[in-house]
Amino acid sequence: MKTAITSFLLLMNVMVSFAQKDSLELGNRYADDQIYVAVSYAQFYDQPTVISKSNFSYGLSVGFIKDIILNKQGNISIAAGVGYGFDFFNHKLKIQKINNEIVFSQDNTISSNLFKSHNLEFPLEFRWRTSTANKYSFWRIYGGVKFAYNLSNKFQFDDDTQTTFKYSNISNYNNLQYGLTLSAGYDEFNINIYYGLTPIFNNSVINGEVINTKILKFGLIFYIL
């Protein structure tokens, strides 16, 4: 994981070196190259019927995104980027390794049940904004898709005797996930939504029911010059 994070930081440094500033003038056009930071409230959705709603959970993302202008005015573009994401879930699905196999169950006796993941993120966006080459505060609507490659995942719970069980990088975890994204707002402050389309687990069942748990996040995203 240290090697992956080091590679990510080096890639970020190279990409940022090509971005001189937000709204870089290109004749009559400009590129809206930016560093972004997102803070989100997170929930699992499409949960198994025996599992209740997750408790307070959150996600953090930071990265760099490169703008590619599509029209002369410069207010329509596509963008591609790379970033790092961290997710923390306080959830109700018990995950345990028994005889070297991952077993999913529901257990009301556990006092703490946490899931943490570190991911490389690759956002792709179609962008519309009210900006010009000389106007740095503007309305924007950015929609697209985000791919996430998992670097590490850890599941941890405490049973009724306060014994802690930890399982890292479980084989059932779906390491490549993607979902739809939407950002809209004015200037640096924008609402941000991520709607996961892929289940976080592969080939997993609970009480005979296939686990299709996915991730939903909504919060704020900040675009920094």
From TrEMBL:
Residues 1-19 form the signal peptide. Pfam families: OMP_b-brl_2. It comes from the Bacteria. Keywords: Signal. Residues 18-202 form the Outer membrane protein beta-barrel domain. This is Outer membrane protein beta-barrel domain-containing protein. It comes from Polaribacter butkevichii. The lineage of its organism: Bacteria, Pseudomonadati, Bacteroidota, Flavobacteriia, Flavobacteriales.
